[in-house]
């Protein structure tokens, strides 16, 4: 059997690169400064829990798959090291895994990744509300198909590169659906439940008096130590 640990990514500001200030400003305006600060604190604790979990494993020869990674080898390691240097906790964890003997694998199709990034860049660089709305509408029309194409490519990469008796770690955004596209001989362990991470994001975006208690529960779950019982077939 093949094994895969799946880590649903919660992005930090450092992951956003040059568009981070714009996205942070938009988020503060949408959620309010207090809620956005609490969210950032939850994200820090989330990644602390992920890091501590992988420190407990012998990861020699584990294959590392990363959302958005379009190359491997020396070039891929340079990308990871640069991301870690700029503050990405996701990339810092991968850099540590590589130092302990894990192997980086090209995960995505460069054309698909660049195409999606271009749509997002058009939104964040828009100069007026009208331009933002227009760019967001164009992205919305293509978003689902782009995501589907990326998911198929990622699943194909894992299927073709993760050999029998090997173990991989996939760091992937919670909005992706990779699990349903993988063959049944890959045992998948969700380091944090994708459904819980997705629900956390949805609740954060629509927080009100009725779901505030649920939101607090989800935040505490994300910040809690990783508790993995066993990998299960899907």
3D structure, described in words:
By secondary structure, the chain is α/β, with parallel strands linked by helices. The chain has one domain (2-109, 162-223). 56% of the residues lie in helices and 11% in strands. The protein is built from eight helices and five strands, in the order E-H-H-E-H-H-E-H-H-E-E-H-H. It has helices at residues 20-31, 33-55, 73-85, 89-99, 110-124, 129-161, 194-205, 212-223, and strands at residues 2-9, 63-66, 103-104, 167-173, 186-190. The chain has a five-stranded parallel β-sheet with strand order 3-2-4-1-5. The radius of gyration is 18 Å and the shape is globular. The two termini are 13 Å apart. The model is unreliable at 14-24 (pLDDT under 50).
Number of domains: 1
The residue ranges in which pLDDT falls below 50 over 5 or more consecutive positions are 14-24
Instruction: Give me the strand/helix succession.
Output: EHHEHHEHHEEHH
Beta-strand percent range: 5-15%
Descriptors:
globular, 234 residues, 8 helices, 5-stranded parallel β-sheet, 5 strands, alpha/beta
């Amino acid at each position: 059997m093949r094994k895969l640990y799946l880590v649903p990514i919660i992005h930090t500001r450092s992951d956003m690169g040059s568009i981070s200030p714009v996205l942070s400003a938009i988020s503060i305006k949408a959620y309010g400064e207090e809620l956005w600060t609490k969210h950032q604190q939850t994200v820090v604790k989330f990644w602390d829990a992920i890091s501590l979990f992988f420190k407990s494993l012998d990861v020699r020869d584990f294959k590392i798959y990363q959302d958005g990674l379009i190359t491997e080898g020396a070039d891929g390691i340079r990308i990871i090291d640069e991301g870690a240097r700029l503050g990405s906790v996701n990339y810092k964890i991968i850099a540590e895994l590589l130092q302990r003997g894990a192997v980086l694998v090209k995960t995505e199709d460069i054309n698909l990744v660049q195409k999606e990034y271009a749509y997002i860049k058009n939104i964040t660089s828009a100069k007026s509300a009208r331009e933002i709305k227009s760019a967001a509408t164009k992205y919305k029309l293509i978003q689902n198909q782009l995501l589907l194409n990326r998911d198929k490519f990622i699943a194909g990469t894992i299927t073709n590169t993760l050999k029998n008796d090997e173990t991989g770690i996939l760091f992937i955004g919670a909005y992706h659906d990779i699990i349903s596209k993988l063959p049944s001989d890959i045992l998948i362990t969700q380091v944090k439940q994708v459904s819980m991470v997705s629900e956390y994001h949805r609740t954060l975006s629509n927080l009100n008096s009725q779901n505030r208690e649920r939101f607090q529960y989800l935040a505490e779950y994300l910040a809690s130590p990783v508790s993995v019982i066993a990998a299960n077939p899907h």
